[in-house]
Every structure is written in C-alpha cells, then in structure tokens.
Write a structure and sequence with these properties.
elongated; 17 strands; 18% helix; 11-stranded mixed β-sheet; Rossmann fold; 6-stranded antiparallel β-sheet; Tumour Suppressor Smad4; single chain; 2 domains; alpha/beta
C-alpha cells in the first residue's frame, strides 16, 4: 500500500530525549510507502533536502505531524492554515487535549491513515487584530486563546468590552481571556471558565481574578466580534496569543477578536474519545 500523503511535515519537540530515533523510524516507515518527511528543524537522520524553510514547509506539506505536547501543537498547528492540510498530534509525554495519539499508538494510527480509516475533526480559530484609529497595526491567529493582562502583578485593569460594537461591561480584573472552545480547557479553565465541547461554534470570555463577583464567564456565538480596550493607562499591558506571541498594548489601542476564516483539520484518535481525554486529564474517574 502507499501512504495517501506524499509529503509529511514534521514539527518535533527537539528536547525530547528519543526524538531523533522516533523521527528516523517514522521516516523509514514513510519511505517504504513512497512518501517522504520534511522538517524546519535540522535533524541528523534526515537528508539535507528534507530540511526546508517555513514557506517551503507550508507549501510542500500534505499532512503535518506534531511530535510533542499541546505546546508544540500550538506552535506548529498554524503552519497548516493556508492549505487546510490535516494535522496528526502525537503526544510524547502526558496525554494532551490536542495531541491525542500516544507514542505507542503512532504506527497503528499511521496504518489507519494508510487504509483511509480515519475521521477529521474541524476546529475553528480566532483572529485578533490590534487597531488604533481604525487602522490595523497587528494581527494574528489563535487555536486556544487571546489574553489581555498586566505585567505588573499588583495592578488591576479596567477593560472595556464590546460585542458587535455594543457595550457589554468594564471588567475590573487582572485581565481577560477570549477563548475558542478548543482553548476552553486551557488558561480559561484555570481562570474559572466553562468547558465547551471543542467543535461548538462559540467564543468564551473569562475575566482573570475579577474584582467583582458579578463579572462571570460568558459564552457567545462565534459570528459575533469582541472588542476590548484597556481604560487604565496601558503601561505594562500585554497581549498574548496562544501563549506564543506576546505584544505590548499602547494607549488608545483596541483588540478586535472574531472567528477566523481558517480552521484546523485534526485527525481524530480512534483509540479514545474527547470525553476519555477529559476524564483522564481532569481525573474525573478517580474515587
């Protein structure tokens, strides 16, 4: 049999002790089926022509394989946006929400893909735009969340929040998390936000340590646009996208968050359901 994806892009966690051995094994498995592996990381087990830059990685990859944890997935998942290629997340540590496949399940999973016995799950993303005087000066995409918070620990923010330009509230809090359903089990959950099934079309707003107990998490449809602007002086206020991209927010800048035109095509695990992962991660099955 031949593997259905001619070129597989690998995004590895390079600090994993056995990563080179694993990549060599996967590369050999793919070669035996007429496919090849490419990477943006210089890996000694791959030929020179298999090491490409970001642009070529995105252009050539027919499937992207994440070898690491959910943090690696957040860094590598956005590489799939322009062409909507499928993503396989392989966890090399503890079970992840995004990296569902364990190292032991990797080759059985590749065989399932080879046979066409897989399901693809669509995950919607958010786009964040920083604006000043109606001009966009920065933009980015998130799989999990957009966070506006303060760098100074002792300072509380006043964050004016609008939905479709209709005033909602001024959150007096340490910050505000605007999350996808996929990200509802990440920072938002730690801040007291709800767990939302990852394929639902929604946006979650969760204040961080709100000054008033009346300020509660809110779930809205994802066809709406959330606009936030810090009312307190913007010194040491930061915008973080998926915990990866960090940018300082200046006075009179606002952030617009809306559903992205892009989505992720995640190859689902046939070995466990989302609820199995949820019970395992949150230890719901423990007595």
């Amino acid at each position: 049999m031949t593997f259905p994806y001619r070129t597989v892009g690998i995004v590895p966690k390079v600090t994993y002790p056995k990563i080179h051995v694993l990549i060599e094994d996967v590369s050999e498995w793919l070669r035996s089926r007429g496919s090849r592996m490419i990477s943006m990381e210089p890996i000694f087990s791959l030929p020179d022509e298999a090491i490409v830059n970001r642009e070529e990685f995105q252009k050539q990859s027919d499937m992207i394989m994440i070898l690491g944890g959910d943090g690696t997935f957040l860094a590598g998942g956005l590489l799939a946006l322009n062409r909507n290629v499928p993503i396989l997340g392989v966890n090399l540590g503890r079970l992840g929400f995004l990296t569902e496949i364990t190292e032991e399940e990797l080759f059985p999973m590749l065989e399932n893909i080879e046979k066409g016995e897989v399901a693809i799950e669509i995950r919607h993303l958010l786009q964040a735009r920083v604006k000043k005087s109606d001009q966009t000066i920065f933009e980015g995409y998130v799989i999990n969340d957009v966070v506006v918070n303060k760098a100074a620990i002792a300072r509380m923010l006043e964050i004016e929040t609008k939905v479709n330009q209709h005033f909602l509230a001024v959150f007096k809090a340490d910050g505000l998390i605007i999350s996808t359903p996929t990200g509802s089990t990440a920072y938002s959950l730690a801040a007291g936000g709800p767990i939302v099934f990852p394929t639902m079309e929604a946006i979650i707003m969760t204040p961080i340590c709100p000054h008033s107990l009346n300020h509660r998490p809110l779930v809205i449809p994802d066809h709406l646009t959330v606009t936030v602007q810090v009312q307190t002086p913007a010194e040491n206020v930061i915008l973080t996208l998926d915990g990866q991209t960090v940018r300082s927010l200046q006075d009179k800048e606002c952030v617009e968050i809306a559903k992205s035109q892009y989505h992720l095509n995640i190859i689902k695990s046939p070995f466990k359901s989302y609820f199995d992962i949820l019970k395992s991660k949150l230890r719901w099955a423990e007595i």
